[in-house]
Amino acid sequence: MNKAISVDQLAIHGGDPTVKRTFPWPIFDDQDVQAVADVVRSGQWGNPDCGDAVATFEQQFADYCGSKYAVSCVNGSVSLRLALIACGVRPGDEVIVPPYTFIATASVVLEVNCVPVFVDIDPDTYNIDPQKIEAAITERTRAIIPVHFAGLSCDMNAILAIAQKHNMRVIEDAAHAHGAEYKGKKLGSIGDAGSFSFQSSKNLTSGEGGIVVTNNESLYQMMNSLRNVGRLPDGQWYDHFNPGCNYRVTQLQAVLLSEQLKRLDEQTRIRNENGLYLDQLLADIEGVTSLSRGDVALRHCYHLYIVKYDKTKFGYIPKKEFVSMLAAEGVPCSAGYPHPLYKQPLFQQKNWQCYAIPDSVAYTQVNCPEAERACADEAVWIFQQAMLGTRNDMESFAEAIRKIRRAMLNVVESGS
Length: 416
Ligand SMILES: *Cc1c(COP(=O)(O)O)cnc(C)c1O
Known about the structure:
One of its GO terms (biological process) is polysaccharide biosynthetic process. Helices cover 34% and strands 13% of the residues. It contains 11 helices and 14 strands. The protein has a 7-stranded mixed β-sheet, with helices on both faces. Strands 10-12-14-13 form a 4-stranded antiparallel β-sheet. A 3-stranded antiparallel β-sheet has the order 7-6-11. Helix 4 links the parallel strand 2 (94-97) and strand 3 (115-118). Helix 3 packs across helix 4 (104-111) and helix 7 (251-282) crosses helix 11 (391-414). The longest helix has 32 residues, at 251-282. Pyridoxal-5'-phosphate binds at residues 75-77, 101-102, 104-105, 147, 173, 175-176, 197, 199, 210. Pyridoxal-5'-phosphate is lined by residues 75-77, 101-102, 104-105, 147, 173, 175-176, 197, 199, 210.
């Protein structure tokens, strides 16, 4: 049996932390530095007026994903926005999104004068629940943005079938999902378009940046024009055809991404294997559960390793306190989103003055109980850089959870 431990032994109260190392991110070496330094020395920092580093990286990333085209841009919000506009959404159209995701998934919908419609998540995967999608479809629904949350693939066969039946476009939000796969296909390459972020926390990063991949030539041409102030490839510099902006990345970002991309596949393999191992380790600890990887062939890239926490098995300490204890033990983690997106002031207060959202749209009545529970009580996020550790590190994460549980149960049992 586990030996009892006192609360004083927890790192949060000054005890020895379980995890003895830190987990750096981003990871780089002299080759990354050299690549960026070469661009600096060349003086060719911009795009598209000089150099071809941006086009080179776009081709590399498209090839990596198994997609025909890629359009890079300033971030993973703009990439979603470019895809929505290119898909032909009109003001007042509805776009289905999950409520358990980063704000950008839904706010970009408002930014194209469309209405985000929230469909709850599946509690076993934290991805949008395909069984609940059809009930949310109206004659105004034009698109769906499935988010491969944490790097775990959505049920794409089910989503594609529903989209086909209802003539909806599918824009994958793969901001967490670089290198992850569903049935042998890279996430992002499955729907009409797939959007990625290169913001500093993401599994492939240049500090900021984004990209959208597609196999559809007309979508590609429109997105390519939109991110380049509406220019056309054969047009003149001061001829503008589409209502875009300057959303271009620099050559400095592009060469850094080309260097970073060389590491992605091996890093993804390591995270995936560590995730499988951590699943096994947590299966032996009461009160914590892993999300389900389902029964299809997939490769998870663990942008986050999500632990489902059950406070009733931890002496009823609230999730937030558990996360503080776990972080003090040295596990890089957080409690994640405090609320589902529709609870944000943006939606509750309808703070979209400059957008033409129909007056009838209201979010105060929206309720997605699974997303509510994930936010309030259940979801604990372990960050991707921690998933690049060793098997020993995974064991120490499990040990940290076990240690907290022992201390908490001891408090309950001794009534102190
Ligand atoms: C990070 C993120 C984005 C947006 O990316 P930025 O590069 O920060 O604009 C979109 N969707 C999800 C799910 C994200 O996590």
